[in-house]
# Entry
Amino acid sequence: MKSLTVLLLGLSTLAFAQEPKPFHEEEVGYWNTKDSVQLKGTLTLPSQGKNFPAVILITGSGPQDRDETILGHKPFKAIAEYLGSRGYAVLRYDDRGGGKMNKTFINATIDNFIKDAEASLDYLKTRKEINPRKIGMLGHSEGGSIAPGVAAQRKDVAFVILMAAPGRSMVEVMRQQNRDLFYTAKIDSAVVETYVTEYFDKVFPAFATQQDTAQLSGLIRERIGFLRTQLSPNQLFVFGIPPKEDMYVKQVVANYNGEWFRRFITFDPVPSLQKMTVPTLALNGTKDVQVNADMNLQGIENALQKAGNKRYKIVRLEGLNHLMLPAKTGLPQEYAAIKGDIDPTFLEAVYEWLQKEVR
# Structure
């Protein structure tokens, strides 16, 4: 009897192992001919059917890989597999400098990334498995500004999904991000406001117009000197400002005095959003302290209304952070301790909307 049980278990395991996946994945490569950059990614296709609607996934800031791997989480892989199992093709690709890409990231800006997203759209239109009239984009964070940048200037983007996306200018988003990060960390509001108005507001916008290292360094030192007259050393430490600022100043200038940040700090997604009339879904977690849900979703809605968009939906996902994962505070320090790749409520909201607006 024991051997029969083992045999039956073995047959059951074999049958399960041979059960076909509802999707398959293909390694792909294609060119952004405008910038002479070859892009590499993964195309997820449903195993059954044809003429699939398709979603292009666009990552947030920094050189991300195609899965948008962040502290062990792989949200884009999870999205691709979820939608691929339900009849949607999904293309995710490595950023310049991320994953299998060897093209340098340092001199690329959001304008280049818009061209990369356009190249992804052009590539999908060459695939016989894809319905060329039903190709849309899902952008996360900065990617949520890239997708509107494409949709505003091309008529072949069928829909846009904005995942924790900016709905205000980037400098406004960063200013509120500073407030939310420090407020959530229980820093006194008056101290935070002093830092934001007397340091952030005067230093960071200067990177957009001033490239001279000596002048930028002098501005930072002058602002730190003023902060020292207003805040204690312990309060300054909260903002990462040490007793001796020489190394701090060098690091700030090195990190932010580049093409990407100069363009980023001046970029405003609102003009593109105001031109978007395609079906649009905007989702943000209420625990997002990087892209404030209330401020940015309101900004997106205002812009879409100005565009005359009649087919948009705004969704607040309770308790989710910037990565669309359940959080206690939403602070980035929690990210590594949270399990999973993405919360099911986000996936379900996206799928239900696609079924209604795209299918």
Summary: The first strand starts at residue 23 and ends at 32. The chain has 14 helices and eight strands. The CA atoms of residues 3 and 336 lie 45 Å apart.
